[in-house]
Specification:
CATH architecture of the largest domain: 3-Layer(aba) Sandwich
CATH class of the largest domain: Alpha Beta
Strand order of the largest sheet: 5-4-1-6-7-8
Radius of gyration: 16 Å
Low-confidence stretches: 207-217
Oligomer: single chain
Mean pLDDT: 89
Strand content: 5-15%
Number of helices: 8
């Protein structure tokens, strides 16, 4: 498969999960209530702190809400077909701040034999590049061969930190699109597949700029 890497073809495509492949309708108000935190608290910050401190009670509450959302959610337009098409021509993985269990519940058969790196597999969540490095290590691949496809600044920053390409799928459910990605697409079908086939010369150097933090739950 051609495109994206500086003089190198893309052999690894790593997808974010929530908002990119699947809409995970977490009831944030209910989750905050069950965690005993107010509406101003950032769930992502709390989650990382719980991981750092080994707070299994907090993690169990979040896990339960994610699993419920995974059963109630829906695929983003074109994501099953995109996964199938890419898996025929390159190595594909999912890198998520959610759990592997939530991903496999949501994707169903589309997760069969798919490498999923969830929060239980890392010490630091995106935007830290640890998870992306773990994917590349599993595949025996270099960062220049990889494209990280996501919808938030976490994905763009993780790709930049690892030296991989970033492709942002514009998410109509978000009020913003993160800055600093190497490319932007509107969908996961023709648009993304076209980008990943383009010659490397049409792209800037990977991780050319690192975006400022955007909103987060």
């Amino acid at each position: 498969m051609g495109g994206v890497g500086p003089g190198r073809p893309v052999t690894v495509v790593v997808f974010d999960f929530d908002g990119t492949l699947f809409h995970l309708p977490v009831d944030w108000a209910a989750l905050r209530h069950d965690l005993g935190i107010d509406e101003r608290a950032r769930i992502g910050d709390l989650l990382q702190r719980a991981m750092d401190e080994g707070d299994t009670a907090t993690l169990a509450v979040v896990d339960e809400h994610e699993r419920a959302a995974a059963r109630a959610g829906e695929f983003t337009p074109g994501s099953p077909d995109c996964l199938a098409a890419l898996r025929e021509r390159c190595r594909v993985a999912v890198l998520t701040r959610n759990t592997r269990d939530a991903v496999r519940i949501a994707l169903g058969r589309h997760a069969d034999d798919l490498l999923v790196v969830g929060r239980e597999d890392v010490r630091r969540l995106k935007p830290d590049p640890e998870g992306l490095h773990a994917v590349l290590a599993r595949f025996g691949a270099e960062p220049g061969e990889a494209a990280l496809v996501g919808d938030t600044h976490h994905d763009v920053r993780a790709a930049a930190a690892a030296g991989a390409r970033s492709v942002v799928v514009r998410n109509p459910r978000l009020r913003y699109a993160p800055e600093g990605a190497d490319h932007y697409v509107d969908d996961l079908t023709v648009d993304l597949l076209d980008v990943l086939r383009r010659p490397p010369a049409e792209f800037p150097a990977p991780g050319r700029s690192v975006p400022s933090d955007g909103p987060t739950h």
